Amino acid sequence: MPFAGEYRIIDFTLSNCVNSGLKRIYVLTQYLSQSLDRHLKLGWNIFSSILGEYLYTVPPQFRRGNQWYLGTADAVFQNVYILQNERPARVLILSGDHIYKMDYSAMVEAHVRSGAWVTVATVECDRVTARRMGVLQVDRENRIVKFDEKPEEPRPIPGREEYSWVNMGVYVFDTETLVRSVSADARSDSRHDFGRDILPSLVDSGRVLAYPFVDENRKEIRYWRDIGTLDSYYEASMDLVQVDPVFNLYDRSFPILSHMTPRPPVKMVFAGGEKGRIGMALDSLLCNGCIVSGGRVVRSILSSEVRINSYALVEDSILFDRVEVGRHARIRKAIIDKNVRIPPDCSIGYDHEQDARRFQVTEGGIVVISKGEVLA
How far apart are CA 374 and CA 376, in angstroms? Predict the structure, then answer.
């Protein structure tokens, strides 16, 4: 289920790769990556080694000591021997915390035609949101002339004063430039980040180009979301429960692929009795194995095998696998991770002070309950 399951976000990036015809992929994994490795092995065994296709997961190599990846550039540097062994002409680098549909092959072709050392995917973003992103200044020939990381006053796009160009975290590098850059960065006292350190150091060369995002979502409004925070993750998830969601999950020509474990269909239960308790879900997405037994679900996403018991109410929330909501419980504006049991008569999302004493509450007021947490 998109957005409502551990590590499912990476499915969007990998689906873009497959739909773009790119089938030689390395996923650089971080600390405690067992569940990610399992998900990729079960859901992405679609590549043929006979045809030279592969998807490999690569944990940190500890080539500079006993440290995990210190940043995106350090992650590539720790695995630079892969590039030295395979010697590809170009490398496509992608982030795993963004939601969008894009044909990467068109960007690679534009990079080759331009003769650039690096091509950076860019997207228009309103200037308020751009304050928490990497903002680019681009000249008339699409050369990037400056990077600003999270500026207070993002530079506007000429002629479109309410918008700025922001860095999507999608890069095409000539391999020689990439190896040289991450190796030099490894010797410096930097944050080892592409947007903050690597790319600004290359701007003066005049060989760093912008590639304006071309949306494959087939909607009037372009869709790209950075979900690096819990609030942005929640907002992107809630986009999907709209009557006509901007992000199109139903386009068969550009499918979103994932691992799907066989489970029973969704079950909506009329619990009977004199008053009658009708299980219902309105403006919501429910995965296989869910049971709504006399409860009510509104504008929410339920992952696999969630159970909502009689008289319970779940609104504007995201429930991960195997969450159970007890009778008469009320949940509003919450993200609840796997294997959590909400006791009968429990209220979450109605009393900010009480919620903050028991759980994490985001700046946007979203209550977050950790995986397997036991609630009294």
Answer: 7
**Count of Cβ atoms closer than 10 Å to residue 143 Cβ:** 17
- Domains belonging to the chain, first-starting first, are 10-239 (3.90.550.10), 267-369 (2.160.10.10)
- Are the C-beta atoms of 320 and 287 separated by less than 8 Å? no
- Asked if residues 62 and 190 have their Cβ atoms less than 8 Å apart, the reply is no
* pTM attached to this predicted model: 0.88
CA angle, 53 then 59 then 64, to 5°: 125
d(CA 308, CA 280): 10
- What the block records as the tokens of 88 is 């590809």
Backbone angles phi, psi at 247, to 5 degrees: -80, 120
User: Cα–Cα distances in Å, from 159 out to 148, 210, 219, 304?
Assistant: 20, 18, 24, 47
pLDDT at 66: 66
pLDDT digits 0-9 by tens, 182-209: 999 888 888 888 888 899 899 988 899 9
How is residue 196 annotated by DSSP?
I
Q: Give the pLDDT band (50/70/90) at residue 65.
A: low
Residue corresponding to tokens 């860095």: 167
